[in-house]
Design brief:
heterodimer, B: 291 residues, alpha/beta, Rossmann fold, eight-stranded mixed beta sheet, 15% strand, binds thiamine diphosphate, binds iron/sulfur cluster, binds magnesium ion
């Protein structure tokens, strides 16, 4: 996780909402990438879970965007995608060949924990009460997201004990 | 040349699905390239992207630019030919550490000394990925692979020092631990008027070692900006580049403040000069036919 050039003390509500949208967009994009990788590598269970995460992140992103539009219309965005990196998106190498649905969920859970830590660590620097309230809300939502993933984990049966790395796909020779 | 409408990263993404192993660092590099190209704003048909052979060399196919997945180690001479034939194109070359510094290592010096205006991206994973995990020129000494069962006896090539020593005008390093930083240095490299080199630590999740994965890279990463490095200082850049393999310095090592003229511009100039006295094209065979 990395952030660059964000002055939390002077963050406006519009910028805070835009940042939150960018964070959701990035996570959505990463899960989309992971789902495609899993489909390409014949790992449908993990692909299905990552697609579920795409939908979750997209839904949250849409809600934030609706709020932003209601409050600030189409006032141009001041913050940039380059200001945040991997806040809620899993690291690029969290996807693995033949990963089980359980491993996919563990990767997503770790990312939700990471996002929660981001909002929590930013809170003490925030002065604007509206921005504070928003970050509080987002922090709590990350806990709810963790619960959602845990619910999915609970639905899984016992682990079949298969080690995915033993079936690692190898690149094609040229 | 035209850049009238705005492009987004997705406009540079092709429909071809990458066949890299899930989690491969090259997935991050292609994202960094999409972002950098969107920031540059040239339409895909004005971009030529050449690679050699290797997992990393599949990258042009995943973009909407004109691509050539060419011959092992030969991306640079082909890229040079394209740039000379059509200097208006934005020309990118890319490949792996093996492609660039083993079989293709001899070409780098010549593109640097000519200052051909292309951007060369090496996806450095310290291994031959495609051929299933042999020692590469950037593998560290002692590395156990299928071609070094008892540990490598060789010192690795230092790609950063290599290109700095030959006089490259732009040298940078990036990694998937900072995608925005990666996109920014690729963009800067493209904007640099001359040969620009970007070494990207791109972990091989299948044959790479634990320390070379993202978690390991994060532990040794340090941004050159945070160190107060002046990218106009070539000697300071060389000093920092010596830590390749122990530290992961991210950002621009060197940007020549007074770039030399590019080879492509000089060739154009020479062509313009000579064309005044040149035979018209339709009479060119007269040179070879005895009257
Ligand atoms: C002339 C020639 N020699 C050898 C090979 C076999 N070969 C294909 S890719 C490769 C090395 C790949 O390593 P690297 O360039 O580091 O790319 P990576 O797969 O790690 O991305 C080799 C030796 C070849 N294709 N052509
Ligand atoms: S073998 Fe390594 S470099 Fe090649 S696609 Fe797999 S992870 Fe990437
Ligand atoms: Mg390699």
């Amino acid at each position: 996780m990395a952030i660059q050039g964000i002055d939390f003390a002077n963050l406006s509500l519009m910028d805070a909402l835009d940042l939150a949208i960018l964070i959701e967009d990035e996570a959505q994009e990463r899960y989309q990438d992971f789902a495609a990788q899993m489909e390409q590598h014949h790992t449908p269970e993990a692909a299905k879970f990552f697609t579920y995460m795409v939908e979750n992140e997209a839904k949250h992103g849409r809600e934030l965007l609706a709020r932003r539009t209601q409050l600030f219309g189409d006032t141009p965005r001041q913050v940039k995608a380059a200001m945040i990196f991997d806040v809620e998106a899993p690291d690029f190498d969290e996807a693995r060949a033949f990963m089980s649905a359980r491993e996919a969920m563990a990767a997503a859970l770790a990312s939700e924990v990471k996002a929660h830590a981001f909002f929590e660590s930013a809170l003490p620097s925030i002065k604007d009460p509206d921005v504070r309230a928003l970050f509080e809300e987002l922090r709590i939502e990350e806990i709810e997201h963790q619960e959602l993933v845990q619910l999915e984990l609970a639905k899984l049966g016992k682990d079949n004990g298969v080690d995915g790395s033993a079936y690692e796909d190898e690149p094609a020779a040229q | 040349m035209s850049a009238t409408c705005e492009f987004q990263a997705k406009d540079y993404k092709s429909d071809l699905k990458p066949i890299w192993c899930p989690g491969c660092g090259d997935f991050s590099v292609v994202q960094g390239i999409y972002r950098a190209l969107a920031a540059i704003g040239r339409p895909p048909h004005e971009i030529a992207f050449v690679s050699g052979i290797g997992c990393s060399s599949r990258i042009p196919g995943y973009t909407t630019a004109y691509g050539f997945n060419s011959v092992h180690g030969r991306s640079l001479p082909i890229a040079q030919g394209i740039k000379l034939a059509n200097p208006d194109l934005l020309v990118l070359a890319a490949g792996g550490d093996g492609d660039g510094f083993s079989i293709g290592g001899g070409h780098i010096a010549h593109l640097i000394r000519r200052n051909v205006d292309i951007t060369y991206i090496v996806m450095d994973n310290q291994i031959y990925g495609l051929t299933k995990g042999q020692l590469s020129p950037t593998s560290q000494k002692g590395r156990v692979t299928c071609t070094s069962r008892f540990g490598s006896l060789e010192e690795p090539v230092n790609p950063l020092l290599y290109v700095l020593a030959y006089g490259a005008g732009f040298v940078a390093q990036a990694s998937p631990t900072d995608l925005a930083g990666m996109a920014a240095v690729i963009e800067e490299a493209i904007r640099y008027p001359g040969f620009a080199f970007v070494n990207i630590q791109s972990p091989c999740v299948t044959y790479g070692e634990e320390a070379q994965q993202i978690r390991g890279l994060k532990a040794i990463s340090e941004s050159l900006v945070s160190l107060g490095h002046n990218p106009a200082d070539r000697l300071a850049a060389m000093d920092l580049a010596q830590h390749y393999g122990e530290k992961m310095h991210l950002g621009v090592f060197y940007r020549n403040p007074e770039p030399a003229p590019t080879y492509d511009a000089l060739v154009r100039e020479r062509q313009a000069l000579l064309s005044k006295d040149a035979l018209p094209k339709e009479n060119i065979l007269d040179l070879f036919i005895k009257k």
